[in-house]
Amino acid sequence: MGIGDQLRQVYVGIKEEAAKEQSLYGKVLKVLSIVWIVIKELAGIFGQLPYAMRALKEKRQMEDQGRCHLIRYGPAKRNTADVYLPVGIVADLSEMDRVTLNGFNKHEGGRQREAPAGAPVMLFVHGGVWASGDKWNFAPMAARLAESGCVVVVMEYSLFPHATVPVMQAEIETAWEWVLLHIHRFGGDAQKVTVMGHSAGCQLASEMLWRRAHLGLPQPHRFVGLCGPYHISDHYEFETQRGVAAISTMRPAMGGKVGFVRHSPTVTARKPNAKQATDCLPHMILMHSREDDTVPWSQSAAYSHAVSGAGGQCSLLLYSHSSHSDFVTAWWAQGGRRPSDAGQCKEAPKFSQIMGRNGLPPMAADLLSIMESNGDDDIYKKIQEVKYKGMLPDSKVWPVIEEGIVINFDTYEYKPAWY
Fold it and tell me: Looking at residues 351-356, what average pLDDT do you find?
């Protein structure tokens, strides 16, 4: 979504909200409040410039080393992805269709060989209110995961206003099918794929997984969701309380309020026929921060409860000392010092010491261990699981949760105040 489209969305939102006020004074106050929100959002974007410079630098370095390949998985303009490779793996591009590649034919020379199979794979679906996000934004995270031995596919997809959620979800499914067919040429194992989404990417990826589960189609080994909005109607209420619903692109990207229920994975998991599909769902691991003021952690909690209630396997990891964006930006090289642009994420090493990853924030350390695990049993050996019982549905006092402890919601009915 370009600057012009964003400004038009802000203008439409201001007109819509101002029209709800009866008095001129009320209209002026409403306009000023929205303008103030926009100014704060812009300040946050400019505050990310140091991180953006680091991300672009790391991406260029990986490209120069022949460890970042640009591929095309579909016909739309943004149907591209960057594939990050671990050290020692050289992609075998010799027999791939030229349409699939995008400018990296320079690596088709003498260095070309069959890539060894077996590395775990991550397909990452970015967020951005269904209207923004570029694959280079996530180069530090992808490079660090590749450093640990993972093949990382960071994809882009069409954005609002050029596409709505059904188109986005279909493109993500096309990217997943590309991974199934081609990732072995980049040293990855198609049987060890983790699909990971962040924010809006969680909703899109989850919707894809439920669709494929109902059809019995091949699924990834697991799904990891970072700070995702899984119940759109409730998130719209939350955005309204924050005062950002008018300028958010969520409602138009969903096709209006009529699409809220249809595009809510939590609602899908609560339907009677969900139990018929959960056997075909991958293991889900949802990660969220208690201090996330963009998407509340109760979104992940309610989705975890709904999936578990339908018979699926879903775990929830909760953290503190981290923001909504820290999950994808607070990453740096092994043995490197924490960059000054790493945000407010603090070293809270309790859980990362268990994992043996003291060089990264807890959620990043845990994600590395999840990617390196051999299977679900191996994950549970590394994760301390605590079951909370007896919390009243209407309670406004949240339980005190330590870093990285899994909450299993099989034991009680969970319903935050706005659900």
Answer: 36
Q: How far apart are the first and last CA of the chain?
A: 31
Torsion angle of C-alpha atoms 164, 165, 168, 172, degrees rounded to 10? 180
What sections of 119-229 are H helices per DSSP? 139-147, 165-182, 200-215
Dist CA 164 CA 252 (whole Å):
8
Q: What's the rounded Cα separation, in Å, for the pair 71 and 108?
A: 14
Residue 189, classed as helix, strand or coil, is strand
For 226-271, the pLDDT digits (tens) are 999 999 999 999 988 887 787 789 999 999 999 999 999 999 999 9
Query: Which tokens sit at 359?
Result: 């060089």
Pull the structure tokens for residue 367: 């994600």
pTM: 0.81
User: What are the beta bridge partners of residue 63?
Assistant: none
Please state whether 118 falls in left (phi above 0), alpha (psi between -120 and 50) or beta.
Answer: left
Please report, as a single letter, which amino acid is at residue 409.
F
In contact, 351 and 366? CB cutoff 8 Å: yes
* Pair of tokens at residue 7: 């400004």
The strand order across the sheet containing 314-319 reads 68-72, 80-84, 151-155, 119-125, 188-198, 222-226, 283-289, 314-319, 406-407, 385-386
Measured N-to-C along each axis, helices 24-47 and 3-19 cross at an angle, to the nearest 10 degrees, of 150
Length of the chain measured in residues = 419
Interior angle at CA 157, CA 312 and CA 220, nearest 5: 30
Residue pair 81/154 in contact by the 8 Å Cβ criterion: yes
Q: State both tokens at 412.
A: 């009680």
Between CA 257 and CA 248 the distance in angstroms is 13
Q: What is the CA radius of gyration of the chain?
A: 21
- What pLDDT is recorded for position 381? 52
Q: Hey, is 279 helix, strand or coil?
A: helix
Q: Is the pLDDT of residue 8 over 80?
A: no
What was the pLDDT predicted at 362?
81
Judged by DSSP in three states, 285 sits in strand
Going by pLDDT thresholds of 50, 70 and 90, the confidence category of residue 419 is very low
Report the share of the chain in percent with pLDDT over 90.
51
* Strands 222-226 and 188-198, bridge-based pairing: parallel
